[in-house]
């Protein structure tokens, strides 16, 4: 048996080993960064909220047959997960134009896309997480063509489930980022987190373009009321999960 040790500290989470080498413990911090850590701050209570929302959504997806790393929420800020080796790709799915898509293409924010757009970014802070073309993906040899196809199909399936779920919370799922990993047997599992840090979430009940923002854009763009937006997402997600459990 080995003593738990810090394996990795990222911008928003710390990953620890456990006495079981097939399981890790993830600790969710209140630290927030944006623009590749050029902007730094704290969102009070974010760790607890993101751990709770992520646990609920990963469990929901597991119940739908998506293979994820989620095992259990161990405390307000701690999630027990299956040990995986993260594939260094950020898989972004977009339903509505926002963020870097608008900056890079000139598409108007809020435009509904004709189909969900799946994009791959290289997970490399030193290089600023560049957007990859499919040929760059092949040349980098990070994942096989078959795995890339699997990542895309999984991301689209996850988008469908999450979009439907968020609609039932009166929230529009604008876009989000996923990370995947491989377990010891080579199985591809959805990993990391799904939270207001990694999704753009707009309140369907609010028309105002700034007031409707319920995600990390409030921090990125200095819109204020960051904590209450995260709390609002948690409240709606948990209420809806409870309703689903009762039906
Ligand atoms: P983007 O529009 O800035 O490319 O972001 C697309 C989505 O990915 C958005 O929901 C926020 C999320 N995201 C992350 O989770 N981590 C990141 O480092 C970045 C840049 C975006
Ligand atoms: N998490 C990323 C970073 O700091 C960027 C972001 O979420 O906007 O650096």
Short description:
The protein is of the alpha+beta class and 247 residues long. The protein has helices spanning 46-63, 99-105, 134-140, 145-168, 217-220, 226-245; strands at residues 6-9, 13-17, 23-28, 31-34, 39-42, 70-75, 78-82, 85-86, 89-96, 112-122, 171-182, 188-191, 199-203.
> How large is the count of helical segments?
6
Our Rg estimate from Cα atoms comes to 17 Å
Helix content: 25-40%
Task: Calculate the mean pLDDT score and round it.
Answer: 97
Structure description:
32% of the residues lie in helices and 31% in strands. The strands form three sheets. Strands 8, 9, 10, 11, 12 and 13 form a six-stranded antiparallel sheet that branches. With 247 residues, it is an alpha+beta fold. Bound molecules: thymidine-5'-phosphate and aspartic acid. Residues 11, 33-34, 36-37, 216, 220 line the site of aspartic acid.
Question: What would the keywords be for this entry?
Answer:
single chain; 247 residues; alpha+beta; five-stranded antiparallel beta sheet; 32% helix; binds thymidine-5'-phosphate; binds aspartic acid
Q: What's the structural blueprint in terms of helices and strands?
A:
Layout: E1 6-9, E2 13-17, E3 23-28, E4 31-34, E5 39-42, H1 46-63, E6 70-75, E7 78-82, E8 85-86, E9 89-96, H2 99-105, E10 112-122, H3 134-140, H4 145-168, E11 171-182, E12 188-191, E13 199-203, H5 217-220, H6 226-245
Antiparallel strand pairs: 1-2, 2-3, 3-7, 4-5, 6-7, 8-11, 9-10, 9-11, 11-12, 11-13
Helix pairs in contact: 1-6
Bound molecules: thymidine-5'-phosphate (TMP) and aspartic acid.
Thymidine-5'-phosphate binds next to helix 2, strand 11 and strand 13.
């Amino acid at each position: 048996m080995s003593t738990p040790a810090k394996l990795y500290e990222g911008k928003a989470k710390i990953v620890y080993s456990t006495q079981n080498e097939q399981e890790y413990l993830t600790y969710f911090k209140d630290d927030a960064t944006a623009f590749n850590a050029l902007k730094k701050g704290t969102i009070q209570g974010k760790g607890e909220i993101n751990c709770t929302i992520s646990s609920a959504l990963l469990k929901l997806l597991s119940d739908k047959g998506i293979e994820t790393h989620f095992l259990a929420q161990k405390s307000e800020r701690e999630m027990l997960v299956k040990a995986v080796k993260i594939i260094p790709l950020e898989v972004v799915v977009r339903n509505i134009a926002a963020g870097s898509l608008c900056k890079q293409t000139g598409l108007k924010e809020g435009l509904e896309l004709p189909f969900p757009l799946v994009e791959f970014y290289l997970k490399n802070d030193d290089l600023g997480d560049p957007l990859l073309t499919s040929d760059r993906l092949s040349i980098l040899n990070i994942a096989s063509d078959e795995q890339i196809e699997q990542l895309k199909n999984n991301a689209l399936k996850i988008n469908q489930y999450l979009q439907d779920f968020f609609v039932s919370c009166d929230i529009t799922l604008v876009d989000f980022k996923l990370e995947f990993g491989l377990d010891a047997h080579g199985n591809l599992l959805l990993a990391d987190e799904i939270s207001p840090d990694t999704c753009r979430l707009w309140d369907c009940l609010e028309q105002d373009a700034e007031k409707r923002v319920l995600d990390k854009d409030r921090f990125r763009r200095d819109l204020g009321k960051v904590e209450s937006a995260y709390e609002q997402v948690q409240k709606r997600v948990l209420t809806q999960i409870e309703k689903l459990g009762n039906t």
